[in-house]
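hey so i finally got around to running the thing on that chain from the lab meeting. sorry it took forever, my laptop kept dying and i had to restart like 3 times. anyway pasting the input first so we r on the same page abt which one it is
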Amino acid sequence: MRKLTICTQDSCSYCKQLKLFLTRLGYLYDEIDLTNRPEAFQALKEETGLFSLPQVFVGDDFLGGYDNIIELQQNGKLKQLLDREA
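ok and heres what got predicted. didnt touch it at all, straight out
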């Protein structure tokens, strides 16, 4: 299974909801907490074009934010992306 990484902030309710959602589904993930790292968050925004959190990656592939991950799961595509060879 490919590595799932979530970029988050402590005050982000969508970050908390997504982590709970993925945990309930049994997905393991690494978390990058950007709460006290504004320069890293700015660099991430410039890289992805998304100005909110959470931001989710599988390997080096950017999947999007909260809504994108929920949609991928509902369509059965999240597991496919995680199972795909790197």
